[in-house]
């Protein structure tokens, strides 16, 4: 499967990121906890330009906890602070705020010495499309906005959202781009739904997912689709069995593999198959 991902928007996104990064004290980089490597930008160290950075493992509610632990270590070994977040219910958001202050401590001290007592620290949220940036920002603003309400101010044409405790957030998140050269990255992002399904072959994608599940989460696959076993079966035969067991028949009395593929993908993406991570540290 050959996946091209937003190549046309890359240059503009890159330029905007670089401009915006100059204006902030801390970068909050969202990644998808189900694909902690594929959903980041491998050039982020360079892009961040030595600014303090927090990596937020978003959609933690959908990821495999054991694998998450390994990836936390992977990031921390590289000197990057990690916070686990569920932006849908807001879990972990307060930790992100606290971490941001911690990382900006020196700057706050410096400001104090210069008489700038309440100078807010400035943050921006960045991440690839669909990683949850808007959901995260809404929760952050909901939890941390000043009691007086939001008073967006205009600085150099940028909109800032005032949060309580002297913090401001750039109201437009930075769009990052994944590593295009690597096909596996494209496949992983397609599996989690970050690439529009219209441009993908959903059946092909479902077969890739079946292969991954049988090797990593076999019990879930067997239980959910009432399969007796998958030994000696090709993944297409497993998809056929899913269609059979779900009684997915189309005109002409044929198995509706397309429908089976859509159901499998939806159930995986919505966590109905349980918490699943598609990557493994070191692989
Ligand atoms: P973006 O700005 O980075 O493009 O992402 P956005 O916030 O639009 O979120 C993309 C999808 O991810 C949304 O689902 C959103 O609800 C979901 N999402 C964001 N954070 C989390 C999280 O921590 N956990 C889970 N489970 N989902 C999360 P959607 O299907 O596009 O819309 P809807 O389901 O909210 O209607």
Automatic annotation (TrEMBL):
Protein species of origin: Vallitalea guaymasensis
Positions annotated to bind GTP: 58-61, 86-87, 130-135, 174
GO MF annotations, alphabetized: GTP binding; GTPase activity
Classification via Pfam families: MMR_HSR1
Function: Required for a late step of 50S ribosomal subunit assembly. Has GTPase activity.
Official protein name in the record: Ribosome biogenesis GTPase A
UniProt keyword annotations, A-Z: Cytoplasm, GTP-binding, Nucleotide-binding
Listed GO biological process terms: translation
CP-type G domain span: 10-178
Location(s) in or outside the cell: Cytoplasm
Record-stated family: Belongs to the TRAFAC class YlqF/YawG GTPase family. MTG1 subfamily.
PROSITE patterns noted in UniProt: G_CP
GO-annotated cellular components: cytoplasm
Keyword presence, GTP-binding: yes
PANTHER family on file: MITOCHONDRIAL RIBOSOME-ASSOCIATED GTPASE 1
């Amino acid at each position: 499967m050959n996946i091209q991902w937003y190549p046309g928007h890359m240059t503009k996104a890159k330029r905007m990121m670089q401009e915006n990064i100059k204006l902030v004290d801390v970068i909050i980089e969202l990644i998808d906890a189900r694909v902690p490597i594929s959903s980041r930008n491998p050039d982020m160290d360079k892009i961040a330009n030595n600014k303090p950075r927090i990596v937020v493992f978003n959609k933690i509610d959908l990821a495999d906890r054991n694998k998450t632990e390994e990836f936390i270590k992977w990031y921390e070994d590289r000197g990057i602070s990690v916070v686990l977040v569920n932006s849908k219910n807001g879990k972990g958001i307060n930790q992100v705020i606290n971490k941001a202050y911690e990382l900006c401590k020196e700057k706050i001290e410096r400001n104090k010495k210069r008489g700038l007592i309440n100078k807010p620290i400035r943050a921006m949220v960045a991440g690839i499309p669909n990683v949850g940036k808007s959901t995260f920002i809404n929760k952050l603003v909901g939890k941390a906005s000043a009691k007086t309400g939001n008073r967006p101010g205009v600085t150099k044409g940028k909109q800032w959202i005032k949060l309580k405790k002297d913090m401001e957030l750039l109201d437009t998140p930075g769009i990052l781009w994944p590593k295009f050269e690597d096909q596996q990255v494209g496949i992983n992002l397609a599996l989690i739904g970050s690439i529009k399904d219209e441009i993908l072959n959903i059946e092909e994608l479902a077969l890739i997912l079946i292969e991954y599940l049988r090797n990593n989460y076999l019990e879930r696959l067997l239980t959910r689709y009432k399969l007796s076993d998958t030994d000696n079966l090709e993944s297409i035969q497993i998809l056929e069995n899913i269609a059979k067991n779900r009684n997915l028949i189309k005109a002409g009395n044929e198995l509706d593999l397309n429908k089976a593929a859509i159901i499998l993908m939806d159930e995986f993406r919505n966590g109905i198959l349980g918490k699943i991570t598609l990557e493994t540290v070191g692989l």
